[in-house]
Write a structure and sequence with these properties.
Layout (H helix, E strand, L loop, with lengths): L2 E6 L1 H4 L1 H7 L1 E3 L6 H10 L5 E6 L6 E14 L23 E15 H5 L18 E4 L1 H11 L1
Parallel strand pairs: 1-3
Antiparallel strand pairs: 1-6, 2-5, 3-4, 4-5
The chain binds a DNA duplex (12 and 12 nucleotides) through loops.
DNA sequence: GCCAACGTTGGC
DNA sequence: GCCAACGTTGGC
């Protein structure tokens, strides 16, 4: 089983939205590296943190699980969507998404608290200039953060 | 609002 | 294929 971090802006779709929906297609990812993580490396049953960015309290806000492996992202075919991609066709989809299921809302664990942990020094989300919306989390990082949430 | 960092675009 | 310009991201 692998661990991941899903970054999202709570003003668009945050942990409370997922708690309400229970499951959602993690669509709209338009970055090749992040797509490749979903398409090539994510498996059903993987776990992840939900991370809130571009908000008052950036940090970890919830725990999720991957409930369906990658499949073509419907929004790439939708002309009305901001994620529409004219170069994508159903026969040759360019973008993929997994389904993410709500596990639980955590107490907010802010970026400063994360930075204060030596064990998390190399965590991708904390690196300078990081912009990837999906990043792998190591088992050690996962355990460290779970410990902080107890 | 600022600024650093990064990905994408497009001219050549 | 190079690289400058541009747009976006995201913490502060």
């Amino acid at each position: 089983m692998n661990y991941w971090l899903f970054k999202t802006e709570p003003s668009t779709y945050g942990v409370d939205d997922l708690a309400r929906d229970k499951v959602t297609a993690w669509s709209g990812v338009r970055n090749y590296q992040a797509r490749n993580f979903m398409r090539d490396a994510m498996r059903k049953g993987d776990r992840g943190f939900l991370y809130h960015s571009s908000c008052d309290e950036p940090g970890i806000a919830g725990i999720v699980k991957v409930s369906r492996a990658a499949y073509p992202d419907e929004s790439q075919f939708d002309r009305k969507s901001r994620y529409y991609d004219p170069a994508a066709t159903p026969d040759a989809p360019r973008w993929f998404n997994v389904d993410v299921t709500f596990v639980k809302k955590t107490r907010p664990l802010g970026i400063a608290a994360l930075r204060s942990q030596k064990a998390l020094a190399k965590m991708q989300i904390l690196q300078r200039g990081n912009r990837l919306s999906i990043t792998p989390v190591t088992h050690a990082e996962w355990k460290c953060i779970l410990g902080l949430l107890v």
